[in-house]
Amino acid sequence: MLKDIALGVYEAYLERKLSSTEVPRHLAVVQDGNRRYARTKGDEPEEGHSEGAQKTERVLDWAYEAGIEELTLYAFSTENFGRDGDELERLFDIIAEKLNELAESDEVHERNVRVRGIGDIERLPERVREAVSHVEEETRGYDARRINIALAYGGREEIVEAARRLGRDVEDGIVSPESIGSSTVESRLRLRSEVDLFVRTGGERRTSNFLPWQARGAEAQVYFCDSYWPGFERHEFLKAVVSYNDEGGSTTTTRAPLASEEPAD
Questions:
Q1: pTM of structure
Q2: Is position 32 annotated as part of the catalytic site?
Q3: pLDDT in tens for each of the 265 residues of the chain?
Q4: Per UniProt, where does Mg(2+) bind (predicted)?
Q5: Structural domains in the chain plus CATH codes
Q6: Annotated binding-site residue? 35
């Protein structure tokens, strides 16, 4: 009871601070720790993924309330393809289900939110590809807010792909080598908007190949949090957003259990 009261007071303080400061326009989140969260409860990995998906829904609401215009979520990396087959199938089911729910969400339509998938979508199972197409089509005309779901995504691979496209354009005479600059490369990326703040849960102090170009040469601020993604709470979200205008760059909060004691997953 006392803990709940204290958290309520702390959230109210953060809300007041947030109301008088600039919020990041584009927030990128590495949602780490679903499986480790499940293990702390004695559950199977898919239970952690399911609870993580529910947390994502909460965070979408928090981001909207905070006035964040664009949110990019690292839902499935290229490295994740190496996981156990049964776990992957369940994870793909959850991703497809949540994408379809977003496509039909009253909040998404009322808030005029455009949702799109970024990454090597063709590598994903048909049900996930269809769900991506569905939510993109249902929200195509919206422009008040943006949600990007990174699926089968790797940042270095995105840059390599952009370089290949640029090389083909040079061969075809569309672009001259002398005219190539950062904006030329950026125009060929899957995601072209710059990130203001990265948030990573799960205790790891790295961004794991997530949007390296969009980080503007590491100019984007980073907030690391030890809480596993399903246990990430509103006061931690508010603290992360408020940290955007703190001096000194990266901000870290510590909360037991320390996830850095285990491999990231």
A1: 0.89
A2: yes
A3: 778 788 889 999 999 999 888 999 999 999 999 999 999 999 998 899 999 999 999 999 999 999 999 999 999 999 999 999 999 999 999 999 999 999 999 999 999 999 999 999 999 999 999 999 999 999 999 999 999 999 999 999 999 999 999 999 999 999 999 999 999 999 999 999 999 999 999 999 999 999 999 998 778 999 999 999 999 999 999 999 999 987 544 444 434 333 333 334 5
A4: 32, 219
A5: 24-150+194-259 (3.40.1180.10)
A6: yes
Tell how far CA 63 is from the center of its chain. Answer: 12
Is 34 labelled as part of a ligand binding site?
A: yes
CA distances, 162 to each of 13, 36, 79 (Å): 44, 35, 20
* 148 annotated active-site: no
Task: Look up residue 210 and give its amino acid.
Answer: F
Identify the active-site residue in 43, 61, 80, 106.
80
List Cα–Cα distances, 115 to 72, 95, 135, 216, in angstroms.
10, 14, 6, 23
| Active-site residue, selected from the candidate residues 32, 196, 226, 265 | 32
Q: Residue 207, annotated ligand binder?
A: yes
